[in-house]
Design a protein that fits this description.
Belongs to the iron/ascorbate-dependent oxidoreductase family. This protein has 317 residues and is of the alpha+beta class. The chain is built from eight helices and 14 strands. The longest helix is centred in the middle third of the chain and has 25 residues. The structure holds 2-oxoglutaric acid and fe (ii) ion.
Length: 317
């Protein structure tokens, strides 16, 4: 498939089979899909983008007050993350802020003041993202024909409890204009696959995301107003025996975009830490990609391993 399909998610409740069939076709080919009518009001997404701009507009000293640590939460500065360590000369040209969740109305991390003033909103937005992921996971279970006695439509959702221990994160991203370390280097975020189950991505204003449709062919993931982009992560690829594709993607700036800041917001949905990466009870798992080494690994362990690799050069610095 050389394009990313757009699927109307509004009819999932009334016609789950038809929506799941469209979702399955996208997941088995390009591993990316856009959803419209996905249930999160546009006003909420816009508020999140304004808050993100407000946060990143602050002086660096302010942002660095709550820097990321081993919990994967907090501020990540420019070039601190390197998504394609074998290839990139420099760390990614981006800064990020990772938010966890609220437990009993309280954040699980020390929040910078701009975010703390809006913590209730952040908690709601992250929970809404998680709920949407739960619905998408229902569509995946229907698509993978999981029997009722094995958990049926709730098979994946039950392994992604918001209240459980998991590494799910809401992330604000900013790719600042014209700040490439090397002007011939157009890659802002290196080629990578995502680590978790599914990722939601909200884009705003400036495009730049590219998806690897084949080894030699990168296609752009344009901004579709009112749609959210969804992609498969590595763990879903393991569970589905390689049927669902965790496709590589990267962020590049075309010359005409280099003079603008680009903002995006991602929600990385992770399974609960203890969930094993073994094959799911589905008649469709082919087994060819089921990695025997990973079958005894948990979602929490896999996430930690990938995060260690992403931040390896920070540890070495
Ligand atoms: O900012 C984007 O458009 C994509 C970000 C991304 O792929 C990631 O952070 O994993
Ligand atoms: Fe990604």
């Amino acid at each position: 498939m050389d394009h990313i399909p757009v699927i109307d998610f509004g009819s999932f409740e009334s016609d789950p089979k038809a929506v799941a069939a469209a979702v399955r076709s996208a997941c088995e080919s390009i591993g990316f899909l856009y959803l419209t009518n996905f249930g999160i009001p546009q006003s909420e997404v816009e508020r999140a983008f304004s808050l993100s701009a407000e946060f990143f507009d602050q002086p660096l000293e302010e942002k660095r007050k709550e820097e990321i640590s081993s919990n994967n939460l907090g501020y990540v500065g420019m070039r601190k993350e390197i998504l394609d360590p074998g290839v990139q000369k420099y760390g990614d040209t981006k800064e990020c802020f990772n938010f966890g969740k609220l437990v009993d109305g309280k954040p699980v991390q020390v929040l910078p003041s701009v975010i703390a003033e809006n913590q209730e909103f952040m908690g709601k937005f992250s929970m809404d993202c998680h709920k949407l992921c739960g619905k998408i996971l229902q569509a995946f279970a229907v698509a993978m024909e999981i029997n009722d006695e094995d958990g049926g439509i709730h098979y994946f959702e039950d392994r992604h409890k918001y209240t459980g221990q998991c590494g799910s994160v809401l992330r604000f991203l900013k790719y600042p204009k014209g700040d490439n370390a090397d002007p011939t280097e157009t890659v802002r975020a290196g080629s990578h696959s995502d680590y978790g189950s599914i990722t939601l991505l909200f884009q705003n204003g400036i495009p730049g995301l590219e998806v690897q449709a084949s080894r030699t062919n990168w296609i752009s993931a344009p901004i579709i107003p009112g749609a959210v982009l969804v992609n498969i992560g590595d763990q879903m690829e393991y569970w589905t025996g390689g049927r669902f594709k965790s496709t590589k993607h990267r962020v590049v700036f075309l010359p005409e975009h280099a003079k603008y800041d680009r903002y995006s917001i991602a929600y990385f949905c992770q399974a609960n830490n203890e969930v094993l990466l073994n094959a799911i009870p589905s008649p469709l798992t082919t087994g060819e990609k089921v990695n025997v080494d990973k079958a005894t690994m948990t979602a929490g362990e896999y996430l930690q391993e990938r995060l260690n690799r992403t931040y390896e050069f920070v540890a070495a610095a």
